[in-house]
Amino acid sequence: MEKYPNVTFKSDKVEVTGADSAKLYGDLTIKDVSKPVVLDVHFEGSAKSPWGTTNYGFSGTTKINREDWGLNWNAALETGGWLVGKEVQIDIELELVQVAEQPAQA
To answer: What is the pLDDT of residues 80-97, one digit of tens each?
Structure first.
């Protein structure tokens, strides 16, 4: 963890698939290895906060093979099979806050 403290995702394309759904394309970087992934994104709704901002909720999910990013550790079980599966499901919950545009400084 000290050598690779961050996992990043940089999107480069959004494909709207419905009134409240989309596919978000981009590169997922884990341990300095970048691979393309597609997140299935759902718009969860919006609401005014007590502070007067508008907040927007989104959820996203994708599945990856952890070994594609060099995450290879595993241990054999006495009963057969492996301790850790290759497939990992990634679930994201995101809240965005709309801020008022600031006037340009001269």
So the answer is: 888 888 899 999 999 999
